[in-house]
Amino acid sequence: MKAELILQRRATAKRRWRRPSRKVLLMTVALAGWSFLYGLLQPLSSWITQSLLRLSVDTHFGSAVEFFIYEAPKVLMLLILVVFGVGMLRSFVTPERTRKILAGKRESVGNVLASVLGVFTPFCSCSAVPLFIGFVAGGVPLGVTFSFLIAAPMVNEVALVLLFGLFGWRVAALYLSTGMLIAIVAGWTIGRLHMEKYVEEWAFKAQVGSGPMLDARLSWDDRISRGLQAVREIVSKVWIYILIGIAVGANIHGYVPADFMASFMGKGAWWSVPLAVLLGIPMYSNAAGIIPVVHALLEKGAALGTVLAFMMSVIALSLPEMIILRKVLKLRLILTFVGVVGFGILIVGYLFNLLL
Q: Is the dihedral of CA 290, 157, 350, 316 positive or negative?
């Protein structure tokens, strides 16, 4: 009886695999519609600004309005697409599974693997404490844990896709490679300093359960449902930050003179990179909210390395995350973490200002 039931389940699984469900077909149509609409955004924004609102793009106000009308739906559409994809990805990868992969790895190998997993298992700053406790209590070395915690917010999947959509694959690849390198080197450095004594003792003693493991044999309908759920949960929380970021970017685009921004954040000002990092740390913004500001700054003549340093400091060294991590880390380790990562960001900023 049991053998017959197993065979029946296998046959059902095969039929599901061979015959696309209604949800899969609808999602395919939706993606095609998304691509078509995305291609219309540029001419549509120009028509709304110039024909419908009768604004001239030669004026400061008209230029700012057109920027906002074009960027707002563009960024939101890109966000929805990438969050949907990440939601499906999370049906394959969970925090517990990530911890088990990293546990027991040699530190040098673990730093590289942790940074890679950090890119594909995105977690927000509110997840920092439970992730940190789960990793160190589960036997993951401290340096490897930090490589993961640095890579997860810094090499943000939303930022990666938005950079690709706005600036092309070269800038996106630059962001990905430098972010991962900082995570690997910073985690390795912290591991070499042997600072376990600066972790609150109770974190090592915390009980690490098996946790909920998502079934790797979930149907594609289930994975699509998880992607749609991620869109509902995440986009509903961040859309206001996106619009605020785009509004700031629109004002920079329309009203800030190009010469002023070039002198303030250009290659010629040696102090621009450290100043950008210092300005970015106390700010609280997610990647989706900061990308439109980055776009506007680059358009106005700011240097790529300086802007990249600013963006990385906002995402990876945000003050709220430091406050959250204070629950499990002593002040000296937090300052070491900020110092090592901040130094890496400074190098990236200066390097790309020099090369590009």
A: positive
Euclidean distance between CA atoms 205 and 31, whole angstroms = 47
Write the CA distances from 234 to 73, 226, 283, 303, integer angstroms.
Answer: 16, 12, 20, 31
pLDDT averaged over every residue in the chain: 76
Model confidence at 44, pLDDT cuts 50, 70, 90, reads very high
Confidence of residue 47 (pLDDT cuts 50, 70, 90): very high
Task: Specify which residues 199 forms β-bridges with.
Answer: 329
User: Coil, helix or strand for 329?
Assistant: strand
- pTM as predicted: 0.63
| pLDDT at residue 98, as a whole number | 67
Q: What is the pLDDT of residues 90-103, one digit of tens each?
A: 677 665 666 666 76
pLDDT in tens, 338-351: 888 888 889 888 88
CA-to-CA separations, 285 to 10, 82, 125, 313, 318, in angstroms, rounded: 47, 18, 11, 11, 8
Q: Give the list of residues 6+ apart from residue 15 with CB closer than 8 angstroms, or none.
A: none
Q: Which of 173, 152, 185 is nearest to 308 (CA)?
A: 173
Segment 262-319, tens digit of pLDDT: 666 767 777 888 888 887 777 656 666 677 777 778 877 788 888 888 888 887 777 7
Within 8 A by CB and 6+ apart from 200, the residues are 327, 328, 329, 330
Cβ atoms within 10 A of the Cβ of 105, count?
17
Q: Which amino acid is at 207?
A: Q
**Structure letter (DSSP) for residue 61:** H
The DSSP bridge partners found for residue 244 are none
